Amino acid sequence: MMTAFWETEGLQTLGIVVLVFASIKLLHLMGLISFSEDSVEDELELSAVRHRPEGLEQLEAQTRFSRKELQILYRGFKNECPSGVVNEETFKEIYSQFFPQGDASTYAHFLFNAFDTDHNGSVSFEDFVMGLSILLRGTVQEKLNWAFNLYDINKDGYITKEEMLDIMKAIYDMMGKCTYPMLKEETPRQHVEVFFQKMDKNKDGVVTIDEFIDCCQNDENIMRSMHLFESVL
Amino acid sequence: MAAGVAAWLPFARAAAIGWMPVATLPMPVAPAEKSKRQDELIILNVSGRRFQTWKNTLDRYPDTLLGSSEKEFFYNEETKEYFFDRDPDLFRSVLNFYRTGKLHYPRYECISSYDEELAFFGIIPEIIGDCCYEEYKDRKRENAERLMDDQEDNKDAKLPNMTFRETMWRAFENPHTSTMALVFYYVTGFFIAISVITNVVETVPCGSSPNQKDVPCGERYTVAFFCMDTACVMIFTVEYLMRLFAAPSRYRFMRSVMSIIDVVAILPYYIGLVMTDNEDVSGAFVTLRVFRVFRIFKFSRHSQGLRILGYTLKSCASELGFLLFSLTMAIIIFATVMFYAEKGSTSSKFTSIPASFWYTIVTMTTLGYGDMVPKTIAGKIFGSICSLSGVLVIALPVPVIVSNFSRIYHQNQRADKRRAQKMQKARLARIRLSKKGSCTAYLHSKRNGLLNEVLELTGSTEDEQHLNKSTSLLANQHHHLLHCLEKTTNHEFVDEQYYQQSYLETALQNYPSRSPSLSSHEGMTGTCCTRPSKKHRHTPLPNSSTTTHMKPLAHSHQGGLQELSTIHIQPLSSSRCSLNLCVDEAMALNCQSGQITTAIITMPTPPLTTPEADAPLPAGHAHQQNVVKVSAL
């Protein structure tokens, strides 16, 4: 009878032990689950992206800046971006600081794409300096080319009304809310209409590079404004 | 503008070329750079240690000492350097601020010396970066408290003209202020002690007669104890009433914790007075006596440590809650397990799960009374697991509570949450302020710039110099950039107030029907025609009745902006005859479309000579908000 007693006892014990350990394991699992959500180590991978630009002589040859100007530009560039490249987030941040009243991030996005000529997601010092060389020291033709490139979001050689509307909205976003006169919903659209009326000569709904350059060269205001920033550096 | 990105200003200006083909208005002229200086190195000699930096770096912040012409006072001609007789270690942080745009607070430095350095160099501490700002604020507050504590000891002089009530309240709150208050303090403390001891001794058996069982002293010397109790309660009641009378805000006093404790302490006595003869409720009456023990809490007025303890427990509510919750979970689990484990054994004390709760609690807190003991093997195994886990579960939240207590004790009851909230608000306010700063800077310069132009035309040069505040080249360029954007979109930046008002106006008004085309046409051509004689232009026009809800002074302030900005459009548009025609054409076009700007201008002639744009204007000013489309087609 004792054995029977011990048998039932043992079976009971076993059963209860299994139950308890299962519940403890469940708790452990839940503990583990909450643990892994907090693991920050995965995000701490050191950004090993570092970029060193080409030599000063090469850049001097490729752009229209003098040695001193390149030095000044690089010092400012490196100050803001110690790793040597600008990614889009940093770019947006920097650009937004100049327009505190509005939201400059959309326009900065388009600008970033215009500067990032090799479309690798980051703007290195070479890209930066090439872009600036065109904008500050290029011929009017080159500048207009650059502007067309900026507006042509999908780089297919045509500016459609939708692309222009996006750009226009981005520009108006930079103004922010507190403007006089008050910004209305259809203001960008109307501006786009005006633009297309002026630029689209054959009225086919898109503006090609030739139409664009042609029209801009005939417009005195635009021509004059192209020379506005030549003394920037 | 955060001058940390000052280096990118040329880039932003170059990128503005992207707006040019889209713009329909001509762009403003770029600010002339006076001389194309090569960037030069400046040597700053701070108490012998030489720092060198580019001149451009220092020019980023023109309203500080190093960025403005103030540093010329420190220029040493012989050595061609700027000499400052200040702490070189602290100067490092200052110079780093110019270099990186972020001000850091070195933790090992004394806060007041740091403040002095910042004040000397003209840097406001609010721009300390987020990484160091909390530390800075903490140290500053500690310092301020220390100073305040020192001052409070000297501040015992009675303020004149304090009413009797105020004096009493002050005496109650700070017993050290007068001898009477001190006496009162000690007397109440004494009576609290007496009352508590009485309550305790009441229950001690002072048995005398052998045939009876021990009688508690309370029943033996009923009268004596009753007298003692009465005396104590009288004192407490008087004290409570006096505090109630003296309190500046009676309602708030009655809701405070201490007064509730006072009330609860004396209430049983009065209830007892009322209900002595009723036999049924005497049982309840006895229970009420328990509340007399609350008198001991009255000591917390006398002891700072007790208050801190109470405060700690309150602030550690979440840890205590966690402790309780985990304990409850463990108790239920182990009680269930023990119950089923012991079910088989005979004459087991574990009759039900709730009965097992008691065993589990006693085991987990390692008390181990031994009144309930498991007999089966399974029960013993689980019992040991239970006691081991009990130790762990209880040990976990305790250090948190302990550290909380020590922190609060050292910081002397600063509420953590209150501080975090204030800091959050302050941080948001700082960010808003810096953003607003750059916007208002631009609007200010716009107004000043316009006044400049107007003054140029009127030929008063002295006031022009008055207005030429030192806006750096950088700021000029930034403003020019914003100006180009305005021209591109044909909208202007205005400040928040103005925007709100104009929003209200459009909400209130429908489209105007007061022969707008005529007056606008007249307005525009009128100004075009009389451009050379701007000085004498005076086109007063009727008030708009709907603008009466605005305060005249505030309106004139905005009005200053409004009219000057409309004036601004004129010089550009009227400088070319062809454009004039275009303007008229456009006006004709717009008249048909029904959306016209009626920019009615009243020119303030006398206040022109004052440099401020806030001069009170004749109140005849109205404008309606409709978009003007002046296309250069």
Which labels suit this protein?
heterodimer, A: 233 residues, mainly alpha, Recoverin, domain 1, two-stranded antiparallel ribbon, 63% helix, B: 633 residues, Potassium Channel Kv1.1, Chain A, Four Helix Bundle (Hemerythrin (Met), subunit A), Helix Hairpins, 24 helices, disordered C terminus, voltage-gated channel (chain B), signal (chain B), K_chnl_volt-dep_Kv4_C (chain B), transport (chain B), ion transport (chain B)
Q: Would you tell me the structural class of the helices and strands of chain B?
A: mainly alpha
Strand content of chain A: 5-15%
Number of helices of chain A: 11
Major sheet description of chain A: 2 strands, antiparallel
Shape of chain A: elongated
Q: Tell me, what is the CATH class of the domain at 174-302 in chain B? A: Mainly Alpha
CATH architecture of the domain at 174-302 in chain B: Up-down Bundle
Total strands of chain B: 5
CATH topology of chain A: Recoverin, domain 1
Tally of strands of chain A: 5
Integer average pLDDT of chain A: 80
CATH topology of the domain at 174-302 in chain B: Four Helix Bundle (Hemerythrin (Met), subunit A)
Query: Looking at this structure, what is the CATH superfamily of the domain at 174-302 in chain B?
Result: Voltage-gated potassium channels. Chain C
What would you say the CATH architecture of chain A is?
Answer: Orthogonal Bundle
Shape of chain B: elongated
Q: What is the CA-atom radius of gyration of chain A, in angstroms? A: 30 Å
| Helical proportion of chain B, percent range | 55-70%
Radius of gyration of chain B: 40 Å
The spatial strand order of the largest sheet of chain B comes to 2-1-4-3
